[in-house]
Amino acid sequence: MATSDDRPRLGIDLGTTATCVCVVDGSGEARVLANREGGATTPSAVYLGADGTAVVGDLALDQRAYEPGRVITEIKREIGGDYTVAVPGGHLRPEQISALILRQAVEDALEALGTAVPAAGPLASAVVTVPAYFGTAERARTLEAGRIAGLDVLDLVNEPTAAALASGLRGTSAGRAVLVYDLGGGTFDVTVVLMFLDEVRVVATGGDARLGGADWDRVLVDLVLDRMGDFPDEEDPRTSPRLMAGLLGQAQAVKVALSTSTEQMLTMRTAQGHVHRMIISRNDYEKATSDLLDRTLDFTGDLIAQARAAGVSTIDDVLLVGGMSRTPAVARRLDETFPHLPAPRLAVDAELVVAKGAAQVAAGESRKVVDVTSKGYGVLITRDTGRPSLGSAVHWIITPNTPLPTSGRHTLCTVHEGQTTMRVAVYESMTDVLSDDEADHVRLDERTMEGLPRDSRRGDPVELDFSLGADGVLRIDAHAANGARLRIETQVRGRDTDVVAPLPGLRR
Q: Could you tell me the CA-to-CA distances from 477 to 34, 170, 181, 421, 449 in Å, in that order?
């Protein structure tokens, strides 16, 4: 489907390990747009060449065996933070690397549509998905990645919400409660949504930005190396990036195979030509990774309790999303841990359903989507203006799992006579658990408001208005009685740490 100016409307799942692009076709069905190699997804991997160009996808992964230091993977885990990659001329930030992935994936999608890459203006209009627990920094940088890639980003949609939209589950007038368990290649989300006839409403959400299939891969690699034992007469594979890249690729293949078979053979050839063969059983694999799965179950239990506190006492469906959800242990352990829940159901096209939901939103999904914020947002205050020695605390103005868009107000007060300036420090919680200790949270921005009257008295008010949009971007407006004003667009972490290098050209 195209916009009024004939730009395609795409849904994009910008994943930690793979990226998928979908479109709603003339029949109203969401379909995957294959890349140039014919794959439904493109690996979210970038090879930064010494010649200043970049390669994205499978060809980038192939270079791990030769130049692993030039191959960037799992960049989604770093977006919004201070991570940079040194290149000639400066540093690349995560949003720039993400933009390279988006650019190639969308150019391939246009080719699949038979649409030429435009000489000027946006490549396409797109809805891009993000993990539900992403905060304002991660969301703002994802929007920036889309802009750098040449996209008109219509909206950001939370991944579990997109999955629910494309799941085929029908809403009801009373609201069908669906628990979406989304275990992908690099991230984990768990969300409860209410599906109505004309609305999809998120009740509560949680997750972990650093928990996903890549962690299962690493545990499996460690299991193999432990079985191989010492290497007295040959090179230890751990010291060889080439050997480790090959072992990681085999571990990933074994992991996938163990979703349908009970055992799988792994063969590894060392630098000296020695061949090591071993059988990995599903039982061995599940035992080794049980702690990782336990972490997802802990999040799920907390989420169910939050939903219950919000008035959702009964879950009608449990939907499994993401490639890692195909692991048989996921459904089995969910059943064992939460026997009161319905039997988990693996989504059709579990790896693709998020992108399909995004495409439906891009095409004008008729149901209204009401998301929630997974983080809290507040301001640093003096605990007691009469006793400054008691120190500071974070006062929360917007709390986690509040429906979006939302707003809140708090009144700050001057702390001494004749105070003409006021420091405004804005915080975001690390999780959905709030404390007033600033050390537990992330400082998003800090600005100084000037122009307060010289004859101000202690306790004079300064009003703070917080506004958090459906796109997850936070805006703050501070204003005093005499008209003094301070407007804040949150300063994202990692924006001023390094010289930003020009974006490399894509090489096919």
A: 45, 41, 37, 15, 11
| Domain-ending residue, one of 366, 390, 406 | 366
Full-model pTM: 0.85
pLDDT band at 493 (very low <50, low <70, confident <90, very high): very low
Range(s) of the domain holding residue 428: 377-489
CATH label of the domain that carries residue 462? 2.60.34.10
In a domain, 309, yes or no: no
For residue 4, the model assigns a pLDDT of: 44
262 and 144 share one domain: no
Output the domain CATH number for residue 268.
3.90.640.10
Q: Are both 109 and 53 inside the same structural domain?
A: yes
CATH number for the domain spanning 24: value is: 3.30.420.40
Token pair for 221: 């690699």
Q: Amino acid letter at 263?
A: E
- Whether pLDDT at 241 is above 80: no
Per the DSSP assignment, residues forming a β-bridge with 11 are 22, 127
**Tokens (6 digits) for 130:** 């993000």
Cβ contacts of 336 within 8 Å, gap of 6 or more: none
Tokens read off for 345? 């159901």
pLDDT in tens, 29-78: 999 999 999 999 999 999 999 888 999 999 999 898 888 889 999 999 99
Number of domains making up the chain: 3
By the 10 Å C-beta count (0-12 exposed, 13-18 middle, 19+ buried), 498 is classed as middle
- Alpha-carbon separation of residue 58 from 50, 97, 101, 282 (angstroms): 18, 16, 12, 27
More confident residue, 2 or 288: 288
More reliable by pLDDT, 120 or 233: 120
Rounded mean pLDDT of 452-468?
90
For residue 371, what pLDDT is reported?
A: 83
User: Quick one: average pLDDT of 260-284?
Assistant: 86
Regarding whether 471 and 360 lie in a shared domain, the answer is no
**pLDDT tens digits along 294-309:** 999 999 999 999 999 9
Nearest to 471 by CA among 78, 192, 19, 134: 134
Residues 361 and 447 in one domain: no
Check whether residue 408 and residue 361 sit in a common domain: no
Task: Report d(CA 157, CA 369) in Å as an integer.
Answer: 9
30 and 141 in a single domain? The answer is yes
- Domain presence at residue 506: no
| Same-domain check for residues 27 and 158 | yes
Percentage above 70 pLDDT, the chain: 93
Q: How are strands ordered across the β-sheet holding 199-208?
A: 345-346, 317-321, 176-183, 188-195, 199-208, 368-370
Kindly give the residue spans of alpha helices, DSSP state H, lying in 383-495.
none
Closest to 22 measured CA to CA, from 113, 95, 123, 139: 113
Q: For residue 427, give both structure tokens.
A: 């915080």
496, pLDDT greater than 70: no
Domain endpoint, select from 317, 334, 366: 366
Q: Indicate whether 458 and 391 sit together in one domain.
A: yes
Q: Which of 328, 311, 364, 177 is nearest to 256 (CA)?
A: 328
Q: Which two tokens stand for residue 460?
A: 């004079």
